[in-house]
Every structure is written in structure tokens, then in C-alpha cells.
Amino acid sequence: MTILRPIFYLALLAFIVAAPFIAPEFRTQLATLWIFIILSMTWDMTGGQMGYNSLGNILFYGAGMYIAAVVGIAIVYNVGEYTNAAGGGIYKFTDTQYFLGMALGLVAAGVLCAGIAWILGYLLFGLRGPYFAIGTLGAAIAAGELVSNWEWVGGGQGIALPVYPGDDYENAKLFFYYLFAIVGVILFIFLRWFYSTRFAAAINAIRDDEEKAEAMGLHTLRYKLITWSIAAFFVGIAGGISGYQLIHFEPLETAFQTINLGIFMVVCVLLGGKGTLWGPIIGAILFHVVKEVTWNYLLGWQWVALGALIVITVVYFQDGLMGWLARVKPEWFGERVMEKPDMVAEPAE
Amino acid sequence: MDQIIGNIGLLFEFPVVNLKILLDGIMIGALFALAAYGLALVWGVMNVKNLAQGDFVIAGGYVAWTLDQNGIHPFLGIPVAFIVMWIIGWITYKLVIKRVIERDLFTSLLATFGLAIMFAQILNLMFGSDTQSIQLDMPTLYFADGFIDVPMSKLVGVVTALCLAFGVILFMKRSRMGQAIRATAQDARAARVLGIDTDKVYAFTFSLNSAICGAAGAIIVMAWVIQPFYGITYSIRAFVIVTAAGLGNLPGVIAAGLGIGALEQYGSHIFGIGYQQAIAVLLLLLVLFIRLLQQRRKRQVLQ
């Protein structure tokens, strides 16, 4: 086991690097899969590990998209004039400006989203359970509506960003795939370490019983704020990257897409299994594959099917794949299988 | 910014404008209150927070609209929408809601959110994404030198909504089933012990809620507009109202419903019509925050 583990991770890393060359026609799809993985893993930080089911994490995705885009434009041009022209050809970006703008934009997106999460969390973390879910959902919808009325960032039209330099569009696809992959791998390594710390034990305690955790002397609000801010940091960066990948985005359907991506990430986590390291990743892959395979054959009914998938997952399969595995094969999860006391009481044959 | 100040100035310059906004707000608020009453009923009796509430309203509206397209008078659409939505609510209960009652609240919230997405998309596929409404041949009343215009259709709609609400309240107070519903809300276990078939009560309550929403939608389509994706804002408004008023507080629900309607009208007058959805949602955050502060004073949290 101890030798197998590094080999497994190295093989996985090699696969991640090689994936866009194994399936070159699916490069954009694979990049989208990374968005799902990143968003699911970050959602699980609060939803699975801390017991705070947010329906509004998409807020950070949209905010990250806008922040990265605005910063990327602002280092060269006046944002108001740029969005007014709606990307009308007269604005040229050199390669240096493009990459510098993107790099600064992504950093700003991460940091500012973490800040937004801190402030929002300060206001909303007094809400528990369903109220927190509704409150965050409301915040995400409100953010989308407000941004779509904000002319400085393009209003309902959204922002058109410069295209990736060079003529070969395959380069751009590869670039964005690897950018997402780097963020995803860093997030995975971070979470693997993070879930083994005392800090994670504290947030698990908050999930299990917040009153008792507080009585034990944990400063619960601080733990909650830090966890959500870390999650928002990664979501913001992912949003920023996908803004540059999409080139053009608008507020309600792409950036603050509350009922699409905002709910998909929750379903991914539930499909895979809440509160586990691998659950969200497996769930995201499953969900994305099912979605993409069925998408083309449903002719307009795909959204209905997706709604049905949400309902079925939530109602019948809420433990997810990992939860189901943990039930049928507890020994795989390091639990010793033994006869429970109440099983002994059953009548003998 | 100047426009906003100008709009506020208008309110003081012509006080009669206030009256018009208030009247508009109260009329639509009455229908918000109706949907919110249904939500409070389901929430209180079965402890299910139904995020598909608004989509039931919109679906009811489309039932009436379809009838109108086929030449049937829209007033007949109200009882038909009531019955159709009753059946849809019953099916929804049997397929989904029944299985989430005993589960934690997030499960029911997410399951009904999935239902909301399904409903909105089905309506979109069936009727297209255009906004629809029924044109009634009714005069518009004018008051105060034409400053206040009250379309008869809205007035009739509000009166119908009031009759419906009164009927439901009377039913809850007087009938045997209403008694059983109230008993189940108080203590489902005790009600079961005393021989009440709680499953039947739950099914009835959910169907009733969906039927009320359907009728509200049939009224809305006569005087306002509907669109397949407007559902979620009606759900959120219902949540705002119930959260602000508390469960089992009927006068509170009515007052909050009218208040939300009026506040929204004021908001869209001052900030522009583009902000109407945003205002509905921001009101939710505001109400949650106020409730949170109230609870914090008692060193408690909202759960």
C-alpha cells in the first residue's frame, strides 16, 4: 500500500498531462470537466465537511470572472469605454498585455473573492441549515441581477475579452486545459493536506454539532469564515480562467448561472459522496460524462432530464457513490468490521 | 444617480404618485400573500420548504392561458387551474415529496429546487419563453385627475384572491380535514396515534397548496404577465414573506405580502424596472439579516 500510493498518484498525474493528447477532440470538454471538479471540491469544503450547504457558491465563480476580466482590461484601457464599445475591434492587446492582464486578473479574482466570502460569511453564517442555503442562493441571484444592471461592466451585454494570441486555436485549448489542471491539482494537494489537519477536525466538529463545538472553545465563526474564504479563492480563480476561455460572457446565463452550474456542483458532490476527498471528483466526472453523453439525444428535454437527475439523486441516492461503498465495503475505509451488539440479539436460526 | 434622486423627488412633488405605487403594490402583494400562505401551510404541516412554489404559480397561469387561447373565458380558468394543479401537486407528492418529508430540510430544499428546474423547463418547451398574458375586455378606472389608474382586471383579480383565501381559511377552521391538518401540524405522531392517516393529510395539504398556487397564477395571468422562468422569484418572494412573518401567523403573512408588494413597487419606481428581480431577492437578504439580528440578541441562531 505504501509503495502503491505514490505510483498511483504519479500515474494519475501522467494521465492528466496526457489526457488532451489522448483525446484531442475533447480538449474543451476536458477543461470544462476541470471546472466541475474544482467547483465540486470547493463546495464540499463547506457543504460536506462543515455542514453548511451553500447554494450560492456560483457567486464567487461569476465574481471571479468579472474581476479577472476587468483587471485584465484595466491595465491597458479604460474599462467603461471598452465595455461600451462591446469589444468592437479597436482595442488591441499585445501578448505581454494579454498574459500579464490574465495573471494579475486571476490573482485579483482569487483574493477579492476570498474577501467577498469573508464579508458575506460574516453576514450569513448566523443562518443554519436551509436558511443558509436560501440566503446564499438569494445572494447569488441578487449579485447576477445587480451586475446585469451595472453599465460600467457591460450591463446585460457582458464583457468580450481579447482572444488568445496566435492563430492556432488548439494552442488556446491546451493552454486553458493546463491552467485548469494546475489549479485543480494544487487544490487537490491542498485539500489532501488540509483534511488531515486539526483545522479540518474543527470544521468537522462544526458539522457534527455546532453548539458543542462552541462549548468546547472553538471560535466557530472564524473557522467557518476561513474555510469559506479558501473555497471562494479557488472558485474565483476557476471563474476567472473560464472567463478568458469563453472570451465573451454575460451576467445571468454565463457568469452567475445560479440554476445551471450553481446547482450542478451540489449534485456532483451528492452523486460522488459528501464529506470525502474523492467523492466530489468522482461525482463531477460521472455527472459530466452523463450530461455530455445524453445531451445530444434529448432534443430540448435535456434540462428536464437534468432536473429529474437532481431530484432522483437527492431523493434516492443521497449518500452518493462513496457513501454507498462505505456501507457495503466498510473495510476499504479503514473501519474494522465486527458484529454490532444489536445484531447479536437477533433470533438464532 | 441623478435619475434616482429625480425619481425620489417625484414622490415628494406629487404625493398622489405614492398612492398609485402603494395601490399597485398592494394588489400584486395580495397574490404574493396567497402563494406565501400555501408555502407556510406546507412548511408548517410537513416541514418541507418548497422551492417549486413559484413554478406552481406559473404553471397555473399557463393552464388559464391555454384555456383562453381555446376561447374559454379566463374566469373559468381559475377553477380549472385549481383542479389541474391539484392533480399535479398530488402526483408530485406521491413521486417525490412523500420521500423527503422524514429527511433533513436541505434534502427537501434541493429536491424541490430540482422540481422547480424541471417545471420551468417543461413550461418553456410547451409554451416558449415569451411573456404571456390574457387581455380582458374591462375598463380602467381613473382617480385623482387620471394620476391613479386601476384596471378593473386587477381589481377583480384581487377580489377573487381574497375570496379564495377566505375560503381556504374557512376550510382549515371548519372542516374535518382542516382539523386533521392542524392536528398533524401540531404533532404528527400524536395525530397518527389518534387514528389520523397522516400520509393522506400530507398528500391533501401538498395538493391544496399547489392548487392555491395554480389559482393565484390564473389570476396573475389576467392582470399581469407570466413567463416560464419567473417562477423562482415568486418562490423567493414567498420565502421572504414566510420568513418575515413566521409560521402559523396568518395576519403576519398577509401584512408581509402586501408590504413586499409595495416595497418592490417603490424600489422599481426609484431604481428602474430593471432592478425589480434584484429588489425581490435583496429583500430576502434584508429580512434574513433582520431576523438574524433579532435572534443574536437572544444569543440564538436562525435554524
Topology:
The complex is a heterodimer of chains A (349) and B (303).
Chain A: H1 4-22, H2 27-47, H3 58-74, H4 79-85, H5 95-124, H6 129-148, E1 159-160, H7 169-194, H8 198-208, H9 210-215, H10 220-246, E2 248-249, H11 251-255, H12 261-272, H13 279-295, H14 302-316, H15 320-328, H16 341-344
Antiparallel strand pairs in A: 1-2
Helix pairs in contact in A: 2-7, 2-10, 2-12, 2-13, 3-5, 3-6, 3-10, 5-10, 7-10, 8-10, 12-13, 12-15
Chain B: H1 2-13, H2 15-46, H3 53-69, H4 74-100, H5 105-127, E1 140-143, E2 148-151, H6 152-174, H7 176-186, H8 188-193, H9 198-223, H10 231-245, H11 250-271, H12 276-297
Antiparallel strand pairs in B: 1-2
Helix pairs in contact in B: 1-2, 2-6, 2-9, 2-10, 2-11, 3-4, 3-5, 3-9, 3-10, 4-9, 6-7, 6-9, 7-9, 10-11, 10-12, 11-12
What can you tell me about this protein's structure?
- The complex is a heterodimer of chains A (349) and B (303).
- By secondary structure, chain A is mainly alpha-helical.
- Chain A contains 16 helices and two strands.
- The radius of gyration of chain A is 22 Å and the shape is globular.
- Chain A starts with a helix and ends in a 5-residue tail after the last helix.
- The model of chain A is unreliable at 343-349 (pLDDT under 50).
- Chain B has one domain (2-297): ABC transporter involved in vitamin B12 uptake, BtuC (Orthogonal Bundle), CATH 1.10.3470.
- Helix content of chain B is 78%, strand content 3%.
- Chain B has helices at 2-13, 15-46, 53-69, 74-100, 105-127, 152-174, 176-186, 188-193, 198-223, 231-245, 250-271, 276-297, and strands at residues 140-143, 148-151.
- The longest helix of chain B is centred in the N-terminal third of the chain and has 32 residues, at 15-46.
- The chains are: A mainly alpha (349), B mainly alpha (303).
- Chains A and B meet through helix 6, helix 12 and helix 14 of A and helix 4, helix 5, helix 10 and helix 12 of B.
Q: Proportion of β residues of chain A?
A: under 5%
Number of helices of chain B: 12
Strand content of chain B: under 5%
Largest interface: A-B, 39 and 44 residues
- Give unreliable regions of chain B as ranges: none
Number of strands of chain B: 2
Describe the sheet with the most strands of chain A.
2 strands, antiparallel
Given the C-alpha coordinates, what overall shape of chain B results? globular
User: Residue-averaged pLDDT of chain A, rounded?
Assistant: 84
Share of residues in helices of chain A: over 70%
Helix and strand composition category of chain B: mainly alpha
Element pattern of chain B in H and E:
HHHHHEEHHHHHHH
Rg of chain A over CA atoms, rounded to whole Å, is 22 Å
Oligomer: heterodimer
Q: Residue ranges of chain A: pLDDT <50 for 5 or more in a row?
A: 343-349
Q: Provide the spatial order of strands within the biggest beta sheet of chain A.
A: 1-2
Can you list the strand order of the major beta sheet of chain B?
Answer: 1-2
